[in-house]
Amino acid sequence: MKLTEILPESLVVAELQGVDKSAVLGELCEHVATAYPQIDATQLNAVLWERERLGSTAIGDGTAIPHGKLGGLSTVLAAFGRHRGGVDFQSLDGKPTRLIFVLVAPEDSVGQHLKALARVSRLLKDPGFRERLLAAPNREELYRIIREEDDKY
Question: Which of 3, 88, 99, 125 sits at a 20 to 30 Å CA gap from 149?
């Protein structure tokens, strides 16, 4: 599974504005709901928070992968947001989270969901990739970097 198959450029947010984890997740949910009108932003937010209550999806090094399952979907969807200053996502390393990939899978999905999580995790482990994302000037460049890295695997 290629990340760019589930992440349209329109769901790359170059400048998240939220001041905390809740606001950033809400902001990303609104973007997803705008791109996919069949998705209710409030319901998606609730699904992501249900998972966050089990433990933070911040995986360290300024990254997080909030994810969950939502009824009515036929495939996995992704969104990406960058927060220049970073927000507290309760990461184990204590660092502010600046790069956030949201993954939403169909309720009955297991394989797709896990493949998407593994793919994003693998990409985010590369410090050079993270640095390029943080330095990108705009949405178009962010998406180009993601696509370029995605094509390597």
Answer: 88
Tokens of 59: 């995986």
Could you tell me the maximum CA-CA distance found in the chain, to the nearest angstrom? 38
Coil, helix or strand for 91?
coil
Structure tokens given for 76: 């996995």
Residue 31 is a catalytic residue = no
Beta strands in the chain (DSSP E): 12-13, 58-60, 63-64, 67-70, 77-87, 97-106
pTM of the model: 0.96
Handedness of CA 117, 77, 6, 87 (dihedral sign): negative
Predicted pLDDT at 37: 94
Can you say whether the dihedral through the CA atoms of 31, 21, 100, 57 is positive or negative? negative
Which helix (H) or strand (E) element contains residue 128? helix 127-135
pLDDT on residue 14: 98
pLDDT score at 109: 85
Angle (nearest 5°) at CA 88 between 12 and 120: 40
Which pair of tokens denotes residue 97?
Answer: 């989270």
* Residue pLDDT, tens place only, 109-150: 878 889 999 999 999 999 999 999 999 999 999 999 999 999
